[in-house]
Automatic annotation (TrEMBL):
The chain crosses the membrane at residues 71-93, 113-136, 189-208, 351-371, 392-414, 434-464, 485-513. SUPFAM superfamilies: SpoIIaa-like (SSF52091). Coiled coil: none annotated. The keyword Glycosyltransferase does not apply. This is Sulfate transporter. One of its GO terms (molecular function) is secondary active sulfate transmembrane transporter activity. Its main location: membrane.
Length: 714
């Protein structure tokens, strides 16, 4: 790096001037940078290849260093607990995705294993997530409807509906090319085909984001946007489960306004409610909520959380089975869940073009939640995660399972909190959780045949309690930041009343508009001096500040660019009480009138013997009580061309009125912009008279100039 010295003189009044030295950094050409990176990337040594493999599979780094005696108990305990939670949640969330429970169990199994190999977080629990299940379900329902199937989940299906060749009389045969083979595909086959195609594309997008390092996209999903999106989607999920709670059969709504349409259908068919489902739902919700409340109240005494969902499912299944609730009361049940695995199959590439756009929000939401949770828990437990590797991990958690009839996954907050609170130390706990799910897949799945769907709906609704309780935080959020609260409300309402994907888009766009509005109309202030100090503050906010004689100190708290330059000028003119353009025009008009009077011999109030300069001074209005404007640039982070032009015009216009404009507290970026724009004149000769290191040094300079001017007048 070559160093050059750039001298910036900063006058500090009666004390001597001092010099500020700027470093000049030698810029390397883009071609050289690309050449160096390519050379580094293409040099494949054994050591580099080893590091690449170790980086891509982080498990190879930490597993050999695994402290078995220290970690194994916590990992096994947390893995078993998460596995017990995963089973009922997986079966329940299949309702949201519009798929059979077996596919949810597959998803939970494969996601845990793949993240164990590729993830860098020690505590994140990756698996089925309610928001992603909802988004998948909406796409599946839409495609089923477009293909001529009945998307109603309550349609009768035969016991072998899990086979790719279905002969159910209630579904339409649809010719598809799956894995290169032409086959007749029924409703269930088509639904999982849509889900796997969607999941595969979402994973590809996430991997591409990792390759091109597009993780910055998640920065535009602020906490307010994510919370609002989760809350709005929770309302949609809640609405979708009400029909199962009360046991009515209504069509699944499509398009925008799903929440309103569904509630209208519910009230129109409320008379058809199944009394058995209503009673079961009331009992299950009461038990689940009571258990949650007790668990939160006594969590400091409980080493592991209560497996309430599993207990409720086991008891409800037994009651339904031995009470013949399906046959006697027509209560809707889960149906047959086969054991084992369906042979792997390629995702349907013919469907991908239909769901390519839907996979984008799915990919963004998935990696945004995963990365935010990974970084949050890494900070809490004092270790680091690699955001780029996390994108690869969650991407392959979607790509690989899509070959095994799985749908989209991501990290989930609730399970991650449970995982960390039950002693998890590493991702070995994910393997234990996968083993629990595998046990269910191989042996226990058929036992859930008689499980009522209303019980699953109860589990889903109670799991939404945390997101729905955020409505209670609105007053506190409003007190903390009004703009963030507005973003939260807009995102939540649009997610609930329009659609989840549109709600996310509306939330991101609205939050960006709020940022633009904040910079378009930022805070401005006139500053006064804190008595007997070299510091200056806002006259509006603080009392006891001393005005600086014949000097106005103006602060602008935002970057100065094309969108707010007009607001900058209006604020400056309003606060100083002087628009230099109008004042110059008025003076010019007065001078013209004075010249006309002079020619006509009517001297008026003009004193005999005064020259033109004296006449001009005589016409200066009395209300201009200042000779210097100091602009505090400490909050101006950058200038664009319009901003530079605005400052140059201000300097020129005020100088015409014999008013000096000084800049204080500029950062190096702003100084460079001003220099490139010619603000300081040729060779920066005027820099030491226009630019100051602090407000106080500018005030001292202005006072000295005024003293000199007064002395010369005398």
């Amino acid at each position: 790096m070559e160093r050059q010295t750039e001298v910036i003189k900063m006058d500090i009044g009666p004390s001597p001037q001092f010099l500020m030295e700027r470093k000049v950094h030698t810029q390397i050409s883009r071609r050289q940078i690309i050449k160096t990176k390519l050379k580094k990337s293409c040099s494949f040594t054994t050591e580099r290849l080893k590091n690449m493999v170790m980086d891509f599979f982080p498990v190879l780094r930490w597993l050999p260093k695994y402290h078995c005696r220290e970690y194994i108990w916590g990992d096994v305990m947390s893995g078993v607990v998460i596995g017990i939670i995963l089973v009922p949640q997986a079966i329940a969330y299949s309702l949201l995705a519009g798929l059979k429970p077996i596919y949810s169990l597959y998803t939970s199994f494969f996601a845990n294993l793949i993240y164990f190999l590729l993830g860098t977080s020690r505590h994140v629990s990756v698996g089925i997530f309610s928001l992603l299940s909802l988004m998948v379900g909406q796409v599946v329902d839409r495609e089923l409807l477009l293909a001529g199937f009945d998307p109603n989940d309550d349609a009768e299906t035969i016991s072998n509906s899990y086979e790719w060749n279905s002969n159910s009389s209630n579904v339409t045969a649809f010719n598809l090319t799956l894995g290169g083979l032409s086959t007749e595909c029924g409703k269930e086959c088509y639904a999982i085909g849509v889900a796997t195609a969607l999941t595969f594309l979402a994973g590809v997008y996430q991997v591409l984001m990792g390759v091109f390092r597009l993780g910055f996209v998640s920065m535009y999903l602020s906490e307010s946007v994510l919370d609002g999106f989760a809350t709005g989607a929770s309302l949609t999920i809640l609405t979708a489960q009400v029909k199962y709670l009360i046991g009515i059969k209504i069509p699944r709504s499509q398009g925008h306004g799903i929440v309103l349409t569904t509630w209208i259908n519910i009230f129109q068919n409320i008379s058809q409610a199944n009394l058995c489902d209503v009673i079961t739902s009331a009992i299950c919700i009461a038990v689940l909520v009571a258990a949650k409340e007790l668990g939160e109240r006594y969590k400091h005494k409980l080493k592991i959380p209560l497996p309430t969902e599993l207990v409720v499912i086991v008891v409800a299944t037994m009651v339904s089975h031995y009470g013949n609730l399906n046959e006697v009361y027509a209560s809707s049940v889960s149906g047959a869940i086969p054991t084992g695995f369906i042979p792997p199959q390629l995702p349907n590439f013919n469907l991908m073009y239909r769901v390519a756009a839907d996979a984008v929000p799915l990919a963004i939401v998935g990696f945004a939640f995963t990365i935010s949770l990974s970084e949050m828990f890494a900070k809490k437990y004092a270790y680091t995660v690699r955001a780029n590797q996390e994108m690869f991990a969650i991407g392959f958690c979607n790509i690989i399972p899509s070959f095994f009839h799985c749908f989209a996954t991501s990290a989930a907050l609730a399970k991650t909190l449970v995982k960390s609170s039950t002693g998890c130390q590493t991702q070995v706990s994910s393997v234990v959780s996968a083993a629990v799910v595998l046990l269910v897949l191989l042996f226990l799945a058929p036992l859930f045949y008689s499980l009522q769907k209303c019980v699953l709906a109860c589990i889903i609704i109670v799991s939404l309690r945390g997101a729905l309780e955020k409505f209670r935080d609105v007053p506190q959020r409003y007190h903390l930041n009004k703009m963030d609260t507005l973003v939260w409300c807009v995102t939540a309402l649009s997610s609930a009343l329009i659609s989840t994907e549109m709600g996310l888009l509306v939330g991101v766009v609205f939050s960006m508009l709020c940022i633009i509005v904040r910079t378009q109309q930022p805070r401005t202030a006139l500053l006064g001096q804190i008595q007997s100090t070299a510091f200056y503050e806002d006259n509006w906010e603080y009392e006891g500040l001393s005005p600086v004689p014949r000097t106005k100190i103006f602060r602008f708290e935002a970057p100065l660019y094309y969108a707010n330059k007009d607001f900058f000028l209006k604020s400056l003119y309003r606060m100083t009480g002087l628009d230099p353009t109008l004042e110059a025009a008025r003076r010019k008009k007065n001078e013209k009138k004075e010249k006309e009077r002079w020619k006509e011999g009517d001297r008026g109030t003009t004193v005999k013997g005064l020259d033109q300069a004296d006449t001009t001074l005589h016409l200066v209005p009395k209300e201009v009580d200042f000779q210097t404007i100091i602009i505090d640039c400490s909050s101006i982070t950058f200038l664009d061309t319009a901003g530079i032009t605005t400052l140059k015009e201000i300097l020129k216009d005020y100088n015409k009125l014999k008013i000096t404009v000084l800049l204080a507290c500029c950062n190096p970026s702003v100084i460079d912009s001003l220099k490139r724009g010619g603000y300081f004149g040729k060779n920066y000769k005027m820099m030491h008279q226009l630019l100051f290191y602090s407000i106080h040094s500018a005030v001292q300079f202005a006072k000295d100039n005024m003293l000199l001017a007064d002395g010369s007048t005398v």
